[in-house]
Design goal:
- The protein is of the alpha+beta class.
- Helices cover 44% and strands 11% of the residues.
- The strands form 2 sheets. Strands 1, 4, 5, 6 and 7 form a 5-stranded mixed β-sheet that branches.
- The chain is elongated and about 80 Å long.
- It starts with 7 loop residues before the first helix and ends with a helix.
- The protein binds iron/sulfur cluster.
- The site of iron/sulfur cluster has 14 residues, from helix 9 and helix 12.
Length: 376
Amino acid sequence: MDPPSPSLEAGHRLLAWFFAHRRDLSWREESDPYRIWVSEVMLQQTRSRTAEPFYRRFLERFPDLPSLAAAEEQEVLKLWEGLGYYGRARSLLAAAREIGARHDGRFPSDPRAALALPGVGPYTAAAVLSIAFARPLPAVDGNVVRVVTRLTGDGGDPASSALRNRVREYVGRSFHNFHPGWVNQAWMELGALVCRPAPDCPSCPLAFACLALREGRAAELPARRARPPLPLRRGTMFLLLPRQRVEAGGLRAELSAAWTADPAGRGFGERLRARDLPLLLVRRPSRGLLGGLWELPNVEEAEEEAFLLASRIARLGPAGPEVRHAYSHFRACYRPLPGLLPGDKVLGRWPEQRWVPPGELAGYPRSRLTIKTLGF
Ligand code: SF4
């Protein structure tokens, strides 16, 4: 049996619906491949409305590809702070530099060249090239998978490459003679606005052709995957102050009292600001999770005592209440602990560490857990 194909009428209805109902987003009318690329990278793992202010700020600072290619990684990460999945920002920068060096500063229109760039996978390449260069490449994200599996009644595993290929072929057959960029965006928009996890079938322009609706299976598709719970990491985040400076100023008792009265409360931070006392930040390695971000020194629960001892840290008070954050691959639950670090001591496990005055902390791209722990 032939695989299902979207009819020309379905294409007309889909596009008519799209032009009547699409959201007014900052990148919607964009034709510059660089700007489309930035939006597509930000939209991976992030909702449109969340990404919009980041997109505008990013393009104010880096309005074109050469300006991004010349940027420092720290500045790019800082502008990305709060969007998460920082590997995207590092790959964007690496790819911009490569485009500058190998493609004359212009995003390549050839799919193979685009796919060879760092961080550019089939989805991003298809989205950018279809919108900017009218290349007939199907851009399939989670929204599109949901719509198409329902339309075709496909109960396969949505994470499997076999299902993704079926969806890609289906979308590829929906281009007819329409502009592929508009068709790709229309599929995504339908998934974002109408064929949502709880579908609004009465508003759907494709209801007339939907197998799942006809069979009463819309809520069951796409098939669910059983996900194991995320592992939990527990540990301690250290708010470390320079020991000599605190003791020379006779500030130890004052800081200790402020912390003990309200662990991790605002009083402690206010004291640091009033006395302009720097905190120690350490930088994560460039590669890997949260790579290149700055954070408070931290260790897992079982290592705490050994770390305190080896680093000659003097506690300033008891550990504060837990600070939690859910990352993509694990949940973190850390308790803040203030302490004094001898000025001559360097923490062995982090190659880059810096004493940062309170007024300058916000200038560093920092992990979410560190921002939550500090509260400033
Ligand atoms: Fe989705 Fe309902 Fe439209 Fe089918 S009819 S594509 S289930 S919104």
